[in-house]
Amino acid sequence: MNPRIIIANLVVKLLSFSREKTTMFFVIAFPIILILLFGTIFMSQDNVEYHLCVQDLDQTKSSKESINALEVNGNFKITMVHPSINATQYVRDNKVNLVLIIPKGFERSLIRRKFFNDLQASVTITYIYDPSSSSVSTKMDVLNGVLAGVNQELSGMPPFIKSVKKSILTKKYRFIEFFVPGIIAMAVMTLSLFSTVDSETELRQKGIIRKLSTTPITRTDWILSNILYQFTLGVICTIAMLLVSYAVFHVSLHISAWLPAFILLDVFAFVGIGMILTRFAREAQSAAAAANAVSLPMMFLSGSFFPIELMPGFLQKFAKTLPLFYVNEGLRAAMVFEDNMAALRDAAIIGVFAAVVFILGIIATKWEDDK
Amino acid sequence: MTKETEYAIEVDKLTKRYGDLLAVNDISFTVSKGEVFAFLGPNGAGKTTTVEVIETIRTPTSGKVTLLGMDVTKKKHDIVPRIGVLPQGFSSFDRITVRETIQYYSRLFCCMNADIDGLIDLVNLKDKAKEQYKNLSGGLKQRLGIAIALVNDPEVVFLDEPTTGLDPRARHEVWEVLLGLKEKGKTVFLTTHYMEEAELLADTVAIISKGKVIAMGSPGDLIERNANYLALTFKSVDGKVFEILRKMGFEPVLDNHKNVEVRVEHTYDVQKILNAIKDAGALYLGLDIRKPNLEEVFLKLTGEALRENPPEMEPK
Ligand SMILES: Nc1ncnc2c1ncn2[C@@H]1O[C@H](COP(=O)(O)OP(=O)(O)O)[C@@H](O)[C@H]1O
Ligand SMILES: [Mg+2]
């Protein structure tokens, strides 16, 4: 091993990379585009907010408070409809799917019930809705829930069944925070796999290898400089992805030494796989096809884009055999859940895997093409 | 310590098999220090196999090969810094410039402080120093390859088919570079299937065919020994010249352009023939007198042509 040779190689690789626009695009811009795209699509799902039109015919302090409660408890975005408007007509004209009407005399009935304990006093809240709209039933469910709560409170009796919301996560996380580590794992995988396959096949096909084998560079120097190169690219594209995620989505991710550690393990694992692929597919094109065949299922089935819990059971089992799954899990453990034990476990699994394929890769791609 | 000998390369009973194929069949030769040694032979003769064994990148099946006094199978690490190689079909990193490429290779030979500009000058690539490899023409790529083969100031330079696939002009430009090397007194091991190349550059030529060295010596010697005659060609207008030659006891042949070709052993035969033609009042449009070349030597020794096409017509 010779550091000077490794650096010389790294310089050549980085220079080539900086002059290759398509590779630059796929390594740096593509993952960022994915983050922006998926982040925007799923952003709205993070805080579900329904639009609700309310017509207050009572116009009292109590009715206003109730509307306020709806806004807060039901997470509704309220639009007030003027009392003089015909609500049915309003639904038709404005293409809204539901208007809730608070009747006149709301406050009076409320006072009679609350302070005079008059059990006869009640109010009727009317939903004017468009049954053809798909989201209207969810909306009414939410409304019913809120109203049931109000009724229950007015009855003055403590509820028998209470529910406590407790997420399995100690910290609430958003989809984008789940997504970013997955994309980091995926981007590092793709760049390691493809740049290994590219450089190994190019090396063989173009006969650069013949030249290099008559210089003091060793196979070890060559591989180490490749690893270093891919790690450098991995770090650059991770930084770019994180900057965009922070700037656009204000993510909250925990950055620790786990991040570079997982990037490095990811690099080792897929450089190893890449070397094995090039050994068995000598033609550049078949090697690239093989790399696609490896990386595509890995991307979609190992939980880079969505939690594997969303997949059927047998696919979940399959996902757990994929190396990328452990990089995803490990990065999420470290960056989202801050669970060091889980991160350590995943690092150990991917570490063993990486060591095995890497050694196999080295054996598979010895330099002498002599028989 | 490695023992120093007068020979840069000693090959003794080298044999190399690829499975059932006998690529190099029990060959022996020596290359003296400071000489340009050419391996001349057609494709598949075993040239690359032989040089690559000497360069330490292939292992011989049997035989002993010594380079600068060191056994090539045992001393790779000592040998590599002392040799420079232009491999067959040389190629380099597409997006790296001429200058950067030379710099890169000189860094691989760590301790050497190569004179990058000197090398660029030597191969006449000054104007192209900032050009990326992929934009260079074939001849420029080969010249870059030669510069790279020299970054470590090697004692022995191997050039495996340095001009194959080049057009005649690019070939001549490479030859100029190689003549410069020869002047510097480097030991050069050249393989080629162009006899002009061997004839122009080599001090010693070994003709190799089917894994065997079938003749070896200086180009002049080889011609003297194997093709000691003059070839006369008359551009003829009538059949008279042909008849005269036959009557004089020579063996003229008619080629498909109706030119008459005849081989004579001595220069005074030429005078005799010219006089006879003049006396008979026969006519011819032109006369060409030529010493035979290595091509003919090869033809005589193997009964087959060195290559199918003349170099000019070879596809790139
Ligand atoms: N790595 C190899 N494996 C199998 N056969 C080979 C290999 N390299 C060369 N050969 C065969 O050995 C013979 C000599 O090849 P080579 O040394 O390349 O000849 P030359 O350089 O004179 O064209 C050819 O028949 C070639 O096909
Ligand atoms: Mg060859």
Describe the structure concisely for a colleague:
The complex is a heterodimer of chains A (371) and B (316). Chain A is mainly α and 371 residues long.
Features:
heterodimer; A: 371 residues; mainly alpha; abc type-2 transporter like fold; 2 domains; 4-stranded mixed sheet; 14 helices; 4 strands; 6% strand; elongated; B: 316 residues; alpha/beta; Rossmann fold; Alpha-Beta Plaits; 6-stranded mixed sheet; 4-stranded antiparallel sheet; 14 strands; 33% helix; globular; disordered C terminus; binds adenosine-5'-diphosphate; binds magnesium ion
Protein described:
The complex is a heterodimer of chains A (371) and B (316). Chain A is mainly α and 371 residues long. Chain A is built from 14 helices and four strands. Chain A has helices at 3-18, 21-46, 61-73, 87-94, 106-116, 136-154, 175-205, 208-212, 219-249, 258-280, 284-301, 313-319, 323-335, 340-364, and strands at residues 50-56, 76-81, 98-102, 126-129. In chain A, strands 2-1-3-4 form a four-stranded mixed beta sheet, sandwiched between helices. In chain A, strand 1, helix 3 and strand 2 form a beta-alpha-beta unit. Chain B is an alpha/beta fold and 316 residues long. Chain B has two domains: 7-224, Rossmann fold; 229-291, YebC, transcriptional regulation domain (Alpha-Beta Plaits), CATH 3.30.70. Chain B has eleven helices and 14 strands. Chain B has a six-stranded mixed beta sheet with strand order 6-7-8-3-9-10, with helices on both faces. A four-stranded antiparallel beta sheet of chain B has the order 2-1-4-5. Chain B starts with 6 loop residues before the first strand and ends in a 14-residue tail after the last helix. Chain A binds chain B through residues 2, 4-5, 7-9, 11-12, 15-16, 19-20, 206-208, 210-217, 368, 370-371, and chain B through 18-19, 52, 55-59, 77, 80-81, 83, 85, 87-96, 100, 104-105, 107-110, 132, 145, 148.
